[in-house]
Amino acid sequence: MCGIVGYIGHRNAYDIVIKGLKLLEYRGYDSAGITLLDNKTYLYKKKGKVSDLEESIKDLPKGGTLGMGHTRWATHGEPNDTNAHPHQSQNGKFIVVHNGIIENYADLKKTLLEKDYSFKSETDTEVFANLLEYFYLQGNMSAEETVRMALSRVVGAYGLVILCADEQDKIITARKGSPLVIGIGQGEYFVASDATPIVEYTKSVIYLNDDDVAVISRDGLQLKTIKSSQSIQPHIQEVDLNIGELDKGGYDHFMLKEIHEQPRSIADTFRGRILPDCSDISLGGLHEVWPKINNARRIIIVACGTSWHAGLVGEYLFEEYARIPVEVEYGSEFRYRNPIIYPDDVVIAISQSGETADTLAAIRIAKAQGALVLGICNVVGSSIPRETHAGVYTHAGPEIGVASTKAFTAQVTILTMMALKLASNRGTISQDKYRMAIKELTIIPEKIERALGSNEYIQYVSEKLKDSTNSIYLGRGYLYPVALEGALKLKEISYIHAEGYPAAEMKHGPIALIDEQMPVVVVATKDSSYEKIVSNIQEVKARKGIIIAIVTEGDTIIKNMAQYVIEVPETAEFLSPILSVIPLQLLSYYIAVMRGSNVDQPRNLAKSVTVE
Ligand code: M6R
């Protein structure tokens, strides 16, 4: 949610900041802005993409070796030039970029209005810039002291980068709830919302913790906290991310690249975690906590969006194999409903970004009530892995497309490994079955490769469906979460209304929607519910719905009933979500492209939702 880049060093700051903003554009893309300090302050902002900003200032001065920029996902105030960041205080003393929400901004604004401050924008960030200036002009304080004092009055979440016109050799940055990473170069420093804009220049990074305030000059960095002026020792780490992973690799969109990467990303997810003879699974991050997981009274999975759908697959897996009751919760609901959590519950938070605010809040509640909290995350070093007791990284590589694809299949792969290992530990699966299941998992990448082979046919089907205004997705058992995920993919990038349902629920209401205009996508591969879902397809056919079925290779029964049939290779039932979601990802991708949507940056969305 919003991308921030800052630079101080010896190179041209503009070049680094603008390039970094383009890499972070997936976090928000409704407006962008940049500030450069070069004896005086240059401040440029523009509604739209980073490229619109670039174009609008192409003939303006862009010198200086200190600067910062922001690409926005609006929270307070509509996307326009004025609400775009950076925001400058009334007398130009402070310039601020901000990710997050200042919850008490209305109270602060009221106080500042009484002190004769006026505001140009509708943002909470401008309020903070003016608060800084107000304190600064009051007393004999440095910019750093002013920032720490102002932050002690702020309620909310923030990742902030702050410049002071009187201290042109410094960047001040602070974090609470919204991630910030500092990259350390030779006589130069980089600040960003995540490491992607930094790795081209340095792999040495510091992830700020909540309440940290860092004061960065070309000569060094001082880390303090909001409450204390005492310097603390920063924890410098090596970031494991390659610049090569951050381009489209010849594909038209990141989403398409990421869909096609899945044979490799899934292999990366289980690599080193499965013994070569497929006799066992070893998840290093869980070694010490298995005894507690083995004896869990209940597993609660918390997540949002696509990760929540992966969690639903997890429910089927854990209950079927490990025989432990599972509840799957939206982070946003869990956090506010005073949930009952027992000390022998195990809570699993699933998140691609590791920064989703609602999931993080749910984790904190579960921890406070004594449960063991585990994370399944993709972004190494992000907040969720740092706040959970233990966990497993998905290792799917950076996911840039806003619509999550390879993260979903990687999350389901981890959940599958966890469920099988837990079942083996608890003796709820025979060793023969355990080995066979592991073996089957290891050949999933080849099967995904084959599923991707339907690319051309899926384009043909997409052409037929691209003008629809509604659609229904159906699945049963393990394939019900896949139906939900297929529907989410379609609506978020093509803006076609789509609903996912358990197929048998259709007759309790949604069936009323079916007529000859209604596409009904049925995920109906050969599994234990196959005959049942064939009956559901008959019900759709009787009402003249347009049936698009995802079936197992060689299926002839559904072929005779459906208008369009997309085949995937045969696999074990518990692995069917990983395979059958592939055609649904491609279907939504091609429909969106044919409708002219911006697939990687769909309207109103952002890759990581760090506000509640
Ligand atoms: O980073 P997270 O996995 O926590 O994100 C959760 C959701 O915001 C995310 O899955 C969202 O639903 C995607 N846009 C779906 O494609």
Structure, described:
The protein has about 600 residues and is α/β, with parallel strands linked by helices. Strand 18 (about 370-375), helix 12 (about 385) and strand 19 form a beta-alpha-beta unit. The relative contact order is 0.09. 5-amino-5-deoxy-1-O-phosphono-D-mannitol (M6R) binds near residues 351 and 359.
Poorly predicted ranges? none
Radius of gyration: 25 Å
The number of distinct helices, counting runs of at least 4 residues, comes to 19
Rough shape? Answer: globular
Biggest sheet: strands, sense, closure?
8 strands, antiparallel
Distance between the termini: 11 Å
Q: What's the rounded overall pLDDT mean?
A: 94
DSSP E strands, number: 24
Percent of residues in helices: 25-40%
Tell me what portion of residues adopts beta-strand conformation.
Answer: 15-25%
Which ligands are bound? Answer: 5-amino-5-deoxy-1-O-phosphono-D-mannitol
Major sheet strand order? 3-2-4-1-10-9-11-14
Class inferred from helices and paired strands: alpha/beta
